[in-house]
Amino acid sequence: MTNHLTIIKHPLIQHKLSLMRSKETPSSVFRHLLWETSMLLAYEITRDLPIVKTRLETPLCQMQAPFIEGKKLALISILRAGNGLLNGLLEVIPSARVGFVGLYRDEETLEPVEYYLKVPPQLDQRLVIAVDPMLATGNSSVAAIDRLKEEGAKDMRMLCLLAAPEGVARMREIHPEVPIFTAALDEKLNDQGYIVPGLGDAGDRMFGTC
Ligand code: URA
After folding, report:
1. Taking residues 103-114, what's their average pLDDT?
2. DSSP class of residue 136?
3. Less Cβ around it within 10 Å: N or C end of the chain?
């Protein structure tokens, strides 16, 4: 049985995350760090992909070489901040299909409101990795995974950069079979639903809209 929560504590990831947390880090640098970090996170979230051996010839001899088995992957970005993780994942998994779930957070109720959905066909036959840098209340992630299940997804993982205990607990309650991968589990949420210590609003940090 896969762990429900995996915290990826690689020093390179932790270092880049600390730079992203700093309020002094400008958007251009933040975006670049997130892109680099998502490539590193991709290693861990794809660690157990099945491998098949296929015969090929090197310049020296024949061998049975390992390739990733034909497992179809779908990367689903939870807009807008999800795109920050998506770009790096696509660098290392270029053949993955891509989908988008558009949710914004109602600032009063903190509830997610859907405004866009476009996903690849045959989600039921794919490993679906939903990406959102911030797992805060868990409301958006739960709503996005609900919609992906309605679209047929069965085998799912959630990738984020930072998680709050409240978001992890909510995901565990509603979608216990969806493993979560994150670079850090922070202390708590504040009254506005921000992760503390966190890094602020990930979308604003990426796009300079703060
Ligand atoms: N979304 C963000 O971008 N940041 C938080 O701290 C919480 C939700």
Report:
1. 80
2. S
3. N
Q: Are strands 162-163 and 184-185 parallel, antiparallel or unpaired?
A: parallel
In eight-state DSSP terms, residue 81 is T
Query: Which residue among 106, 109, 124, 209 is the active-site one?
Result: 109
Question: Which of 110, 134, 161 is the best mutation target for the ligand 1 pocket, counting ligand atoms within 8 Å of the beta carbon and taking the most?
Answer: 134
202: closest CA among 119, 140, 115, 129?
140
Task: Give the pLDDT band of residue 69 (cuts 50, 70, 90).
Answer: confident
Tokens of 163: 């998680």
Active site residue 204: yes
Are residues 135 and 105 in contact, defined by beta-carbon separation less than 8 angstroms?
Answer: no
Output phi, psi for 89, to 5 deg: -60, -40
pTM above 0.85, yes or no: yes
Mean pLDDT throughout 115-144? 95
Q: What is the distance between the alpha carbons of residues 88 and 38, in angstroms, rounded to a whole number?
A: 5
Angstrom distance (rounded) from CA 132 to CA 25: 20
Domain ranges of the chain: 5-207
Spatial contact of 71 and 127, defined as CB atoms under 8 Å apart: yes
Does the annotation count 54 as an active-site position?
Answer: no
CATH of domain 5-207: 3.40.50.2020
